[in-house]
Amino acid sequence: MSDRRWIGRTASVAVALTLSACGSNGVSQEGSVAPHNAAVVSHSAPTRIKHYHSAPNGLIRFVRTQFRRADRNHDGRLSRVEFDASIIKDFKAMDLNRDGVVTIADIQLDLKHAHAGKANRPLPFYLPYDTNGDGRITQREYLRTITRTIMRPMDANHDGKISLREAINWHVAELHQAQRRNGPR
Q1: Of 43, 64, 65, which is closest to residue 52 (Cα–Cα)?
Q2: Dihedral angle at the C-alpha atoms of 41, 46, 52, 56, nearest 10 degrees?
Q3: pTM
Q4: What is the DSSP string of 17-38?
Q5: Using CA atoms, how far apart are residues 128 and 54, in angstroms rounded to an integer?
Q6: What's the number of domains the chain is made of?
């Protein structure tokens, strides 16, 4: 597994609502896009899906599947509690050596299992969530960063919950932004 694919895999794990097989540079084979703040829906029409027709079917299908898994009470909206629970579960999945933090050792362990060589870059390259720069990502750092960079921008109508449409809009916008930045694959 290449460095770029590991980044994508961890980012897709991070969101729980991430892309699948999008086919553009800046987007991994697993389909994630590096998170950042992006306006995805106009505030006047928060439920309208922009560029829905241009989104890969795999993306829409994957977002729906991940959304349904995270929506524990099946009300069609992800509350902060549901979102956080999904992120914590994903953090635990990334902590391969089960020491309570994600480090370069976890990345090396994952690459070793995938027979893909060694991690030869610093942790921020793989996981940009180490906010204090100590080389370790705690669950708290991870949750705060994901909330700030993904949940808040995804919540287009600012009601504190994420609808499936908001999730799809955000992912489609991220895909299009990555394609504009890097060109289609």
Answers
A1: 64
A2: 70
A3: 0.66
A4: S---S--BTTB-TT--B-----
A5: 29
A6: 1
Calculate the alpha carbon distances from 34 to 117, 130, 144, 149, 175 in Å: 23, 14, 16, 10, 10
Query: What kind and span of H or E run contains 96?
Result: none
Q: pLDDT, tens digit, for every residue of 123-174? A: 777 778 888 888 899 999 999 999 999 999 999 999 999 999 999 999 999 8
Burial of 90 (0-12, 13-18, 19+ CB in 10 A): buried
CA dist 131 and 35 (Å) reads 14
CA–CA distance, 35 with 46 (Å, rounded to integer): 20
Chain-centre distance for alpha carbon 131: 17
Taking CA atoms, 93 is separated from 54, 170, 174, in Å, by: 32, 24, 24
| Domain, as residue range, for 93 | 3-182
- How many Cα atoms occupy the beta-carbon half-sphere of 37 within 13 Å? 3
State residue 133's pLDDT score: 86
In sequence order, the 6+-apart residues with CB closer than 8 A to the CB of 122 are 104, 135
Pairing mode of beta strands 77-78, 137-138: unpaired
DSSP code for 50 = T
Domain harbouring 66, CATH code: 1.10.238.10
